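Example noted here:
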Amino acid sequence: MKILRSVLVGLATAAMAASISAQSIEFLVVEWQRQTVQTSASNIVDATSTPFNFGVFIDGSAMTSGTFTSASFTNPGGVGGLVTFDTDNNEWKFESTLYDTIGNLTAAYTTNHSNPYTIDLTATSGSINGVSTPTTVTFPVISVADLAAVNVAEPTMTLNNGTWQPNGTFLVTDVNSPISISFNDVYNTTPGGSDSYHFDASIWQSAGVGNDNVSLTGGVTEGFVNFDPTTVNSPAAPLSISALTIAGGDLIQGNTYTLEVGYELIMDADGSVLGSTATAAYLAGIRTRITLVTALAAVPEPSTYALLGGLVVLIGTVVVRRGRLTRVKKQMV
């Protein structure tokens, strides 16, 4: 049974309104994730034969490789791992190997024990968020049944100004004209009264020359949304995120780009950790990528495309997060 006690938006806002030091933690996240690829207007497939992974993420303000002398997590089965600094996203994280099924993933990173996940931290300065270290952050208890009941949808995008190709890429018709992007509903069914989710959308240049300065405009590219009509939404939050646009002229002829959107259900959260200035949260998400190809770009053969997709996922499934939880903080200030 989900025991989400309040809106994660409110928890995060309260955390960020508090006085924080130069280095501070705002989010500690445990996440189960599935990686998918959109290959046509409506077809979504797993990115590889092993699309599932598990991660632990520590995001905050002014995080560096010297924030902690040690950081580790332990799962309910007593198995743990080290959380290390990721220079690409300026966050501390652990990422598992990839698994072929969610069952095998949860068997390795079990959730169905009575004891919760914990993260142990030792700060270089001796304290973090005003709390002396070493200290242990304890997550709420969730179960495999919680994961099995997740009804978050596979993110699906609808684009204009282009055509889907037999190899699963989207060929842009005119780089000087805008591309509008709309999204499907976040949930497969009607969410419960206290269900909440995080979403994000981003684009980056995956091959070619020129500056990687493509942006999405016209709506909010990420944030937390809550469905409880008694709190911040009346009667309820929308089931889909706002349409976005790639401006005409942002894409360069001969280049390819990766467009990604993620839907992540917030299964549980505790906004009173580390001196009540940080939020510990469980996420279960699905991320979908589309490869945008412009005219003159080298279009991969289907077999090569599948191999490249697998390599992208293996190299860094969550590198493209680009500090999304940290960016949410900036949007809420």
The chain has five helices and 21 strands. The chain has one domain: 8-332. Residues 8-332 form one domain. The chain has a mean pLDDT of 84.
